[in-house]
Amino acid sequence: MQIGVSTSCLYPMLTEQALRTVAESGVRETEIFFNAECETRGDLFREICAIREAYGLHIQAVHPYFTFAESRLLFDAYKRRFFDGKEFVKRLCETCRALGSNRLILHGEREPFKISEAEYIERFGELAMLTAGEGVALTQENVVHFRSQDPEFLSRMQRELGDLFAMTFDVKQAVRSGVDPIALAKRFAPQIVHLHLSDHGDIGDCLPIGKGSFDFSQLFGVLKDGGFCGDGVVELYRACYKETRELSESAEKLTSISNI
Fold first, then answer.
1. Where are the domains of the chain?
2. How many whole angstroms separate alpha carbon 238 and alpha carbon 107?
3. pTM of the predicted model as reported, rounded to 2 decimal places
4. Which of left, alpha, beta for 26 (phi over 0: left; psi -120 to 50: alpha)?
5. Count of beta carbons in the 10 Å neighbourhood of residue 84
6. Which of 40, 88, 209, 229 could bridge across to 253 with cysteines, CB 3.0–4.6 Å?
7. Model confidence band, residue 260 (pLDDT cutoffs 50, 70, 90)
8. Rounded distance between C-alpha atoms, residue 239 and residue 62, angstroms
């Protein structure tokens, strides 16, 4: 299991600067969270690709820049907008391939829901088929206040989509949803392909590794026993740590735990 650091940890630092900062900390595994469409093309994208190549980075996954708008772009009652959204997703597959990544992450539909559960699953499946044809797996992240916060919904989604269903598993989002992260990981281990990792405990629900009390040894054991064969990144919000070195140190700690 390879553990890195997501560029999202440094938001609102510009994406190319965040990627360079992660690389200069000695981390070679990362996830790129794009924050603007212009970063996925032209000079800015060429700069991002150059940083990746210069430092030998492995881009585990790509987070799209329209995360905040997925509910209205992809999962709204006004279906014509969905067809526009499909084109955005297809272009992001090209971005993934150029970065050597084969995973694209969606949050999905946020409360209040505008379409039925059946239609959500149908649209996600259509998008997943599109990305699969481009050599990229579309992954559903579990996120509080979104459909995906509910493990029962995720189970129904998995049953309907079969092999098209893949998950990005986020520890802090499970905690914020009132879901036991260990139980969620055990339930979906075969479908989980990517991890967003953070600690939690009495002083917060999004902490550097070692600042909380979460049992990562148990988490990694459950995942491995369940057939997980993906990788993961440390993902912390900027207000949740003091110094950048805490990110690389967290990744190192998790790497050591995962190798035991």
1. 3-258
2. 20
3. 0.97
4. left
5. 10
6. 209
7. confident
8. 22
